[in-house]
Amino acid sequence: MSAPDIHSARPSFASFAPPQRTLMGPGPSDLHPRTLAALSRPTVGHLDPSFVGMMDELKVLLRYAFQTENALTFPVSGPGSVGMETCFDNLVEPGDTVIVCRNGVFGGRMIENVERAGGIAIVVDDVWGETVDPQKVEDAFKTHPEAKLLAFVHAETSTGARADAQALAEIARRHGALSIVDAVTSLAGCELRVDAWGLDAVYSGSQKCLSSAPGLSPVTFSEAALERIKGRSRRVQSWFMDLNLVLDYWNSAKRTYHHTAPINNLYALHESLLLLAEEGIENAWARHARLHRMLRAGLEAMGLQFVVAEPWRLPQLNTVYVPEGVNDPEVRRRLLNNFNLEIGAGLGPLAGKVWRFGLMGQSCREENIILCLQALAETLNALGLPTDGDAAFASAHAANTA
C-alpha cells in the first residue's frame, strides 16, 4: 500500500499561525510575554548540568507556590490528569478504602482513579455548585473507620465551587487518614497553604493560575504520604508514575535517567514561577479576588446569576447561568469569532446551562474584564436580549475602585 501524497491532497500546507485569542475560559490561560519567550530558549539535554540547576530552582519555587516545605515537590511531566494519577497510583493499593467527595466533574474522576487502582471508593455526594459538606465526610469516616485516604477537589473547575480544604484535611487526620487534594485551579489563584492546612498529596496544573504552557503538573507530598509510598506492599502499577523511580531523576545528588523531560515547558514553568515570586503569592491571591469582584459586579448588572453561593465562590472561575431563551453555543461562537474571546461552556448536568468565565493568572487583568463585558453585552443585544452594557461597565468600575 503506497503512502498518501500529501502534496496533491493539501498543497497549501504551511507553518501553523494561531489566532491571537483572549483566554477567559476554564484553562488554559494567557501566557505572560516572558513565559512565551522562555519557551523559545535553546533546548539542552535533560541531564545537562545547567538544566539540573534549573530543576533544583523549580522545586524551591514550587514550594513557595504551594506554601510548603515538603522535600518531595516537583512538576510531573504531563497535564494535571497525570498529576492526579500520580497521587492515586502511588497512594492507593488494591483493597484500600478511600472516601471521595464529588460535587462536580473532577470529583468523579477521582472515583475512577480509586477504582482503577483497585481501591474501594466511598462516595460523598453534594449538589453541583455547592461546597463539600464536612459533616457528610465526618459521617463517612464513622461508617468506614477502615478508610485510609480522603480525596477531594479544592477548586471544582466544572462549577466554580471551593471546598474548605483545611477543615476536610483535619477530619482525615483525626481518623488516621491521608488527604489527596485536587488544586489544579486553585494554585496561585486563591489561598492554598499546604503545610498550615495539613494537606498530604496535592496536584495542580501549569496552565491555569500559573499561566504557563499546558503539559506539566506540579505535585507535593508530605512526609506521611512519602512514608506510605515507600511502605507499599506491592509495586506501583504505573512504571512512568512510580515515584520510587521518578525520585531518582529529581534527586540532584544522584540524578539518573528516567524519561526525557519536557525541557522547554520546564523553562516556561520556571519563568512563570519567577513572575509569581516577584508579585508575591498573597498579592496574587488578592489580585484574583479584587478582579473577581469587578467581573462579578459587571455580570450581575447584566442580570446574570452566579451558580455558587458567595462564601464558596472561586475568584478565578466564575460560573453563571445562561439567560433563559439564549442560545449558549451561538453566544460563545460569536464571542470567539467576533471578539477573539474564549469563555467556557458547562459540563455534565450543567452543559448548555452555564457559562464559565476564567480569571486565571495572566488572564486576570482589568482590560480582559472590560473586553469581556463589552463583547458579551454587544452579543446579547444582537441576539435579542436587551443588555445594558453601560450599567455593567459602571458597576464593574465602582467595584474595582471601592
TrEMBL record:
Pfam families: Aminotran_5 (PF00266). Keywords: Aminotransferase, Pyridoxal phosphate, Pyruvate, Transferase. It is an enzyme of class 2 (transferase). Residues 1-32 are annotated as: Disordered. Belongs to the class-V pyridoxal-phosphate-dependent aminotransferase family. One of its GO terms (biological process) is glycine biosynthetic process, by transamination of glyoxylate. The keyword Transferase applies. This is Alanine-glyoxylate transaminase/serine-glyoxylate transaminase/serine-pyruvate transaminase. It comes from Rhodocyclus tenuis (Rhodospirillum tenue). Residues 51-322 form the Aminotransferase class V domain. The modification N6-(pyridoxal phosphate)lysine is found at K208. GO terms for molecular function: alanine-glyoxylate transaminase activity; L-serine-glyoxylate transaminase activity; L-serine-pyruvate transaminase activity.
